[in-house]
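The methods section describes the discrete structure representation at length, but only in general terms. An entry of this sort, consisting of the sequence and the corresponding backbone structure tokens, reads as follows:
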Amino acid sequence: MVEGSILAISEAERSVLEAEVEALLIILPESQRGPYLDLLGAVRRGEVSASCIDSLERTLEWSLRTGRARREHLAEGEALLESIYWRTPAGRAYRARSEEVCRALRSLQGRRLTAIALQPRGLNAVTIALETEGLTVTLVARPPEVILESLSTG
């Protein structure tokens, strides 16, 4: 987000997001609550400024990745929180990385796979190499996402 820009929060989104920020405030140590109190005020006003975006992204990621969003707000509430996330810088970057992986995988369409390799990369990631005649796509799966590491010809 550009400094000073605002992310609008609809009334429907506001009630679900407000509940998530409040839930997070309960479990955060007092020394870490300041940015989230600022975020709560912004959510209640329906406009989140650039200065609160990091806290917003962390709140949404916590709620969505832990499954809390669906548990507490069902599929509809989860969808509202996701719709906010996709409008944040982190959400747009996540979506761009996913689209990059899809483009790389589409480049394999119609080609015969000659090799597939899966290689652990520490305890939290795996490298996936897909080889065809003349093209290799290497992906890294590190939950919660898969990123394109390389696309090579030859």
Q: What stands out?
A: The mean pLDDT is 93. The chain has two domains: 6-87, 106-153. The CA atoms of residues 85 and 130 lie 31 Å apart. The radius of gyration is 19 Å.
